[in-house]
Write a structure and sequence with these properties.
- The structure is a single chain.
- Helix 5 runs parallel beside helix 12.
- This protein has a domain of 140 residues: Rossmann fold (3-Layer(aba) Sandwich), CATH 3.40.50.
- The chain contains twelve helices and eleven strands.
- The longest helix is centred in the middle third of the chain and has 17 residues.
- The chain is of the alpha/beta class.
- It has a six-stranded mixed beta sheet with strand order 7-6-8-9-10-11, with helices on both faces. It has a five-stranded parallel beta sheet with strand order 2-1-3-4-5, with helices on both faces.
Amino acid sequence: MASDRPTPRRATIQDVARRAGVSSTTVSHTFSGNGTVATATQQRVRAAADALGYRPDALARGLRSSRLGVIALVERSVIDFGPHAVLGVDYFLRFAGAAALAAVDQGYGLMFVPDPSEEDAPMVAFACDGFLVTEPTSNDHLLTTLERHGIPHLSVGRDPARERPDTVVDIATELITDRVLDHLADGGAKRVAVIVGTDENAWNLDTEAAYRAWAVRLGHEPLVVRQPERSDEAGGREAAELLSSDGTVDAIYALTAEHALGALALLRERGLLPHVQLVCGSDAESLRAATPAISAVDLLPEALAWEATMRLLTLVDGIERPAPTPDHGRINVRRTSGRRDQRG
């Protein structure tokens, strides 16, 4: 059904010029890159545009309606770590591909964009009709900007500092964590430890919280090692070395592929396989190719992308679309977890 909510008036280039105390030409040159505009003036223009919610409409110029017919995807991990760090991780590529197909199926396009709320980002991204933001961080600046200016958006995973379930696609981190921990326990684990990242996102925070609750229920002493995501395999190796020195750890749940690979290398060198089980929180080609292959969670990003895209488009044009909730977190069991006689 169509929405009866009034469409807010879009700020114009003249509005920005008046607020910044410059000419419309200066505003145009700031966002197009044409001409020469002093850095201080550019900063003043961008601040005025942000305050007004101005969205440069270069791409939309000549269209009859105010809609571009394109939604934006901002994948936080790709932005933060660079594409080289995620090309081997199934989640991001599968999510982006499925979201693009879902959008096209509904007559829209999908554009992969940098965070347009950052000072040096091309403001043309704000011309998009709505935004999907994966794994926002605490008090995410982009979500604040989108909320302030009434731009339709959904986050895939919650911002830990916000309570906005109507604009969040649940990635079921607590459920997935419990499934992994129960799987390790079924494989004989008596002392499970976890390696989480340090970014302030719900994946890290909710995984640790769910793990601690699970440990308390079973009467175990929680053992958590936090390593920066950017520490890569070296960080996983360092964490596994710390955990192995405990002497009682017989299973490790590492959230990132690089940390899991580093942990595997240390466990192999110490001769701790197959005694110590290992599971990773997000599947990747590098995990499947490891020796032995590492068990990992398939986060089912295609299903998440379909749900997120359908829900976002409903916010964009008010037309209800079916958005079934996926069964979260299938574990791809390989050589590093499960019954001991099947490991090695």
